[in-house]
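Consider the following assembly input.
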Amino acid sequence: MSLTDKDKAAVKALWAKISKSADAIGADALSRMLSVYPQTKTYFSHWPDLSPGSAPVKAHGKKVMGGVALAVSKIDDLTNGLLELSERHAFQMRVDPANFKILSHCILVVVATMFPKDFTPEAHVALDKFLSAAALALSERYR
Amino acid sequence: MVKWTDAERAAITSLWGKIDVGEIGPQALARLLIVYPWTQRHFASFGNLSTNAAILGNPKVAQHGKTVMGGLENAVKNMDDIKNTYTKLSVMHSEKLHVDPDNFRVLAEVISVCVAAKFGPSVFTADVQEAWQKFLAVVVSALGKQYH
């Protein structure tokens, strides 16, 4: 299910509209992930505060969206573009790749709540495909 | 048996009270067919599904979206026994319709996205999302229960 030129154009167009709010999107998506899928909290036991909108959640949401921004910029070669991030997720953080799907869904929900008019069915399928492709690239170095 | 907190019950019934089945149902089914096009395999008799515009304008898709979304009413009314409430529906989806149960999970995600877009962050908060997705997960599980 690789990204067509139409998908890439749709992702870039949507990103242009939403990137100003990247920090807010990241914080909200992460907060929702921790609430709706409590098993994901296991990765953040070292944080003093896991509540929605807390300082560590906000900071980390910003970091995550930085990764999404990187992926958008490397949309023509996600595997190589996200290689270093893949190594970190695989060997340092050791995040079960099943969780990428979970966070992707939360990002879709947040974009839907914040940009309902821009989140057309076309934008939805393109963003879903893009996040799946990015997740696959993030899994590259696992084994 | 599923345990609902008072907060979860309240969130689910409140959200359900706001949802217009005739609006969200068609949207959700259309998005399912657009975002996950392999799901179209179950709707060969629905006529033109060849473009997004065709899907969005297809009256059979709209009607069926309404039917599917309306089916959630029974689950909201019988929240403490969704499994048994859905026994017949589960058998039907398995024996007659031959639907891969993973599709239920996928449709549930699409419904949540449509609800999120409709109601925005102040109504569809993280807590409401948690309750709503837990509710849908129970429905999804019940629909898959009679498969063998």
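DSSP finds nine helices and no strands in chain B. Ask yourself how this observation constrains the way the partners meet.
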